Amino acid sequence: MSDVKTKKNNQSPLDFINTVAHTTRKEDSLYLLELMETVTGKKPVMWGDSIVGYDEYEMVYASGRKAHWPMVGFSPRKQNLSIYIMPGFSIIDDLLPVLGKHKTSKACLYINKLADVDLDILKQIIERAITYMRAKY
Asked: Fewest C-beta atoms under 10 Å: which of 5, 28, 69, 70?
């Protein structure tokens, strides 16, 4: 059984964000860094070499394999900001239509730039996600 590659480490989230070349993506990441810390009450931690995460939980795969993962987090990717909403989107389906321009996958919210979305709605999404995860784990 292979080991999970994305693990928390001691890399500085701020140092990581300061390496982001795309100016808007860097500014948006600095905003998310502060927003998520405020909402979660936790300091950011790097997971792997490109994910900034907050709090953590242990997930168990169907195979029985266990892995730790952040409850919420983000990554300034080349194409967009990936925001990790670990419970998925059923708990926030009423907020997505009023969020603004975005895409989703199973547990990722993709935003090109924060100027495209309502930041109050984004904050509510993060609040619901962390509240749900803490109640479950």
From this structure: 5
Which residue from 80, 87, 101 is spatially nearest to 28, judged by alpha carbons?
80
Instruction: Provide the token pair at 9.
Output: 């480490």
C-beta atoms surrounding 64 within 10 Å = 7
Identify the CA nearest to 134 among candidates 89, 92, 72: 72
Residue pLDDT, tens place only, 65-77: 888 999 999 999 9
Q: Where are the domains of the chain?
A: 8-136
Which phi and psi (to 5°) does residue 90 adopt?
A: -65, -30
d(CA 118, CA 4): 34
∠ CA 67-103-68, rounded to 5°: 10
CATH 3.90.1150.10 applies to domain 8-136: no
Global confidence as pTM: 0.93
Q: Angle, nearest 10°, between helix axes 23-40 and 119-136?
A: 50
